[in-house]
Amino acid sequence: MSSLFDKLKSVAKRTLMPEKTVKEFDYATLPWIDKEGADIDAFVKQHPAAKGLSYDLAEKMKFWKKNGYVILEQSIQKEWLDQLWNEVEELIDHHEKYETLIRIDLPEYQSKPVQPIKDVPKKVLNGPYIKFMDFHENSVIGKKIMLHKNIVTFLQAVFNDKVIAMQSLLFKYGSQQATHQDFAYVVSEIPSHLAAAWIALEDVHIDSGPLFYYPGSHTIGKFDFGNGIFFNNKSTLNPNDFAKYLDQTCQNAGLKKETLLIKKGDVLLWHAALAHGGDEIRNKALTRKSYVCHYSSDSAFKHHRQSPNTEPIRRTINEADVFVNPQMLDQEDIFAEGKKM
Question: Which residues 6+ apart lie within 8 Å of 181 measured at CB?
Answer without folding.
Answer: 217, 218, 223, 242, 246, 272, 273, 274, 275, 276
